[in-house]
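User: quick one, sequence for these tokens?
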């Protein structure tokens, strides 16, 4: 053991040189020394250093280590001094990072983080441009409790971790303020494990990262964007989204549309932005930027009449082929399309145009990339150590350890972060089933039961409940959508009732039933009528969203059009009928990009959509149908206001399996309005098909998927039909309808014409019929 302070300093100098020092504040910067003070500077490879204080230049000596420079003073200099440094023939001035000793993470911050309840932890951890004691720089803070030492790497030190060792604080937090750094600086952390192994890591709380394949983090200033959507947010959080029409356009930003590589995006200063491409993009193509997407995508989706965009994951991810679902930068929108403030402007523009923004959020797993969260501080910090509960072998990813408070806090705060910093309106949580079950995609013997002996992941359940509780506390009008493919109960029920706390759940059963049904030759559909009607049997068990998602148009499944049987005319008619049935069925709606105009090829993450197909009438006709469906849906409250109330839906008849025809009513309680929906799922038209209705009168044909505007044969009912006093389906009145082939009709009783009919009948002394 060293017997003198000189020996201590020699050892400290060697530990600093070897990047093994965890308490540099104990030896560097201003230190009490006898009756005065000594200032020590750590400046690797410097040849001469002077301390600049009150107009004086004081030469510094190296009595203990050639890179530890020191000078004695009579009083504490605080942070008023600078260094004049000569290194390799280059001279510069700098402030001393180790003069800024006050803790960045306060006691309350540490306490809340340790118990998993710091909902704004990103304001403390990460890289924060700020001023300390009048000196501008960047404050770095990192959670790595098992690390032996942590150093900052970056352009500021030529990526040499010896220059900037960080200080270990209580709770495994490492801190350092680096004067002179500005937004835009690149950095990583050099994390040394308990065994001495060294890892270069991106910042888990980094607000921006380099464009792949580079892996560094970028210092980014929060709070600089000036939002214009205050009225939108106030209205959103003042209403119940379940009582509103919701039709969602799901898309992948990187493959919706590309730009030409030889026509780069032009920055505000007139300079071209280097195009972002990939080896798998078609030759000459580049990714669009956030501003270009705002100019092209937002008007397109608005014209279609959708209420929301759903973006497949845009948090930073290294591999395009993961579709964004293998995230390394949970707190950063991907730089593929531009910096974070450009994404903020994208969301702001959406709100200005009346579009909500939903993000796919991936709290279920993360990849093994060396710069990411995996084995972060030389130990299993964010993941479980046991692969039987900590790894998805089929996906090659790791599972978050939801039982660790700080890990749970990382994710819950991340959810709040996206809403607060980017003003998003909703999330869709991917692969919820993989979180809920410990044996998900695992053979017997390769999973561990919970403490009660069951297969449920109780820690994940508690995490999801906490995440949704916190979300709705801060943002009561938000959407939280679960992609949950099993029969787990109470997914969309409040947490106080034992539910998971989501407010919507994708109806995977309806999706599979309907796609199976529509893939059948129409003659065989008579034997599968249950596929069409079964969803109503369980519809009121959850708040369901009907979804035809990206997963159904990849990996050899064909795009929606080519799932359908028959010739091209029948394929298009089937798609029209499926979408119209979807839009009139109870529940909110989501379709994937390309379905709106009948993309023919499967989705390819490295391609873009087949926009040239819109030159053909059939494809344009389907686009017209989607436009009109969304318009009609938004204007007809009976189709959405009571989606999750039994009053909102009533079968007229679902038993005519021989002709594959169904009929039902959609109703809403606020005004008492209602519509009649009749669907014919065979190519055989019916010219005298009778459907019961609850009231006499004139029923206007308000929607017909067989319209020539949509590419249909233009069969229909000449604008509507008067009811007749002929009992059918339990009603005393009925309509004799012409049902076009592979079609859906919507009829609405016209009160004015119905009253005229009644008056005429009374005046003539006859019956209405």
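Assistant:
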């Amino acid at each position: 053991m060293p017997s003198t302070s000189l020996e201590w300093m020699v050892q400290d100098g060697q530990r600093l040189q070897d990047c093994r020092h965890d308490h540099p504040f104990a030896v560097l910067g201003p230190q009490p020394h006898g009756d005065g003070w000594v200032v020590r500077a750590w400046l690797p490879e410097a040849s001469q250093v002077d301390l600049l204080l009150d107009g004086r230049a004081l030469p510094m000596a190296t009595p203990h280590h050639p890179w530890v420079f020191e000078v004695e003073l009579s009083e504490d200099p605080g942070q008023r001094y600078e260094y004049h440094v000569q290194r390799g023939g280059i001279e510069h001035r700098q402030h001393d990072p180790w003069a800024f000793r006050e803790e960045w993470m306060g006691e309350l911050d540490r306490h809340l983080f340790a118990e998993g309840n710091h909902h704004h932890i990103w304001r403390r951890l990460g890289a924060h441009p700020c001023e300390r004691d009048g000196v501008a720089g960047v404050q770095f803070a990192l959670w790595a409790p098992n690390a032996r030492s942590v150093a900052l790497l970056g352009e500021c030190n030529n990526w040499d971790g010896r220059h900037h060792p960080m200080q270990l604080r209580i709770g495994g937090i490492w801190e350092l303020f680096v004067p002179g750094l500005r937004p835009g600086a690149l950095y990583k952390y050099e994390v040394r494990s308990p065994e001495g192994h060294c890892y270069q890591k991106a910042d888990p709380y980094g607000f921006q990262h380099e464009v792949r394949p580079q892996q560094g983090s970028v210092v980014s200033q929060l709070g600089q964007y000036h939002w214009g959507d205050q009225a939108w947010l106030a209205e959103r959080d003042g209403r119940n989204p379940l009582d509103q029409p919701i039709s969602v356009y799901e898309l992948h930003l990187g493959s919706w549309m590309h730009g030409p590589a030889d026509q780069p995006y032009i920055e505000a200063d007139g300079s071209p932005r280097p195009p972002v491409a990939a080896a798998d993009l078609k030759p000459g193509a580049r990714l669009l930027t956030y501003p270009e997407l705002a100019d092209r995508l937002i008007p397109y989706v608005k014209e279609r009449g959708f209420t929301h965009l759903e973006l497949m994951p845009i948090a930073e991810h290294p591999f395009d082929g993961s579709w964004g679902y293998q995230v390394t930068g949970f707190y950063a929108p991907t730089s593929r399309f531009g910096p974070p403030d450009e994404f903020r402007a994208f969301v702001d523009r959406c709100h200005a145009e009346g579009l909500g923004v939903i993000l796919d959020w991936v709290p279920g797993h993360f990849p093994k990339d060396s710069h990411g969260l995996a084995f972060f501080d030389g130990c299993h910090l964010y993941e479980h150590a046991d692969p039987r509960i900590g790894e998805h072998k089929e996906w090659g990813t790791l599972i978050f350890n939801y039982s660790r408070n700080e890990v749970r806090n990382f994710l819950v705060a991340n959810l709040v972060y996206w809403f607060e910093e980017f003003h998003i309106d909703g999330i869709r949580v991917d692969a919820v089933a993989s979180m809920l079950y410990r044996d998900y995609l695992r053979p017997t013997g390769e999973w561990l039961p919970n403490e009660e002996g069951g297969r449920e992941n109780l820690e994940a359940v508690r995490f999801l409940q906490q995440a949704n509780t916190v979300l709705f506390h801060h943002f009561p009008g938000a959407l939280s959508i679960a992609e949950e493919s099993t029969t787990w109960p109470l997914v969309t029920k409040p947490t106080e009732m034992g539910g998971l706390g989501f407010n919507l759940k994708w109806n995977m059963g309806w999706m599979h039933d309907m796609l199976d049904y529509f893939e059948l030759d129409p003659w065989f559909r008579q034997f599968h009528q249950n596929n069409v009607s079964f969803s109503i049997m369980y519809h009121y068990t959850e708040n369901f969203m009907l979804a035809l998602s990206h997963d159904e148009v990849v990996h050899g499944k064909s795009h929606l059009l080519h799932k359908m049987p028959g010739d091209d005319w029948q394929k298009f008619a089937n798609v029209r009928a499926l979408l119209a049935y979807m839009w009139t069925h109870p529940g909110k709606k989501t379709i994937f990009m390309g379905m709106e105009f009948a993309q023919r090829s499967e989705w390819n993450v490295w391609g873009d959509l087949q926009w040239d197909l819109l030159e053909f009438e059939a494809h344009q006709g389907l686009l017209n149908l989607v436009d009109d469906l969304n318009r009609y849906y938004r204007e007809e409250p009976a189709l959405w206001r009571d989606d999750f109330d039994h009053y909102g839906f009533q079968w007229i008849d679902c038993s005519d399996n021989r002709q594959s025809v169904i009929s039902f009513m959609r109703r809403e309680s606020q005004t008492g309005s209602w519509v009649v929906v009749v669907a014919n799922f065979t190519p055989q038209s019916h010219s005298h098909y009778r459907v019961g209705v609850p009231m006499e009168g004139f029923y206007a044909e308000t929607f017909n998927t067989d319209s020539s505007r949509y590419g249909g044969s233009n069969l229909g009912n000449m604008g509507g039909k008067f009811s007749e006093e002929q009992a059918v389906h339990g009603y005393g009145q009925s309509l004799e309808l012409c049902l076009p082939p592979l079609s859906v009709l919507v009829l609405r009783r016209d009160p004015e014409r119905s009253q005229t009919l009644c008056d005429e009948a009374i005046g003539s002394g006859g019956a209405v019929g």
